[in-house]
From TrEMBL:
GO molecular function terms noted in the UniProt entry: copper ion binding
InterPro entries (alphabetical): CutC-like, CutC-like_dom_sf
UniProt similarity note: Belongs to the CutC family.
Name recorded for this polypeptide: Copper homeostasis protein cutC homolog
Entries under Pfam families matching the protein: CutC
Source species, domain of life: Eukaryota
Amino acid sequence: MGDIFMVKGDETIILSNSCNFHGVNDTENMLEVCIDSLESAINAIYGGADELEVCSSLTEGGLTPSPGLVSQIASVVNNIKNGRLIHKSCSQYSYGKKTLKVPKVNVMIRCRTGSDFCYNDFEMDTMLSDIDHFKQFEIDRFVFGALTDSQEIDEKNCKKIIERASPTPVTFHRAFDVCKEPNATVTKIINLGFNRLLTSGQRCTAADSEALVLIRTLLESFSDKIEIMPGAGVNVDNAKLFIDMGCKILHSSCKITKYLNKAGNNLRMGEGDSEFIYVTDENIVKEMKLKMEN
């Protein structure tokens, strides 16, 4: 089957059957966009995202997504691979000419909020079952991290996740950023079998001056053993800084804030501020990719 063409606004897009499910040229600088909705996933894909980190509740730092969301995104990816219309919401698009990438799909495994990342047996059983369920969608990667109550790597529970996920690779997420002794911690993460580390340099934002020092040190010491992926506060204004430092993949939400209608009677359905959600902006993704390539 040949390439199928579509136009989105003023853009021409090819739904290419030649795209590899595992992404584009490995030498290209890559962008992983974290999303928590189908709308954001489609926006990220049209923007040119190389990978999607699929979560729920980005306002909570990202939790395990629903099976429905993962299923819908898997369908979108399969439609791109097979040259079909990617989603019914896109039915108004007509024909035309630009390659639409097939993104990798990476699934967050984090069953609850909290920055302790210290999980009991009930929580671990839940997350192991989540992995079993999501593997049916042929995803590309899981994202996980677990610590002890003394903020050390929980090697026992991390090993369980690595073994259950196999042969799917696993990223160790920003639980690293609350650990002590970062160099020794990365060594443990590598020895456990993780092949990517998401980090803000143990600061609130990866662009913090002290965070940059740590990220540079991690690159110099470990980049031949594990991918170092900066995330948190990575945006259009500073993306080139991380690329010039030697990072090959960046993590960003490329988001805008969407405010929700307030409920009557001042009722709130939860403890947190639920008056807004994050939505990935296609144009921000495009701009990020341009900054990373120039």
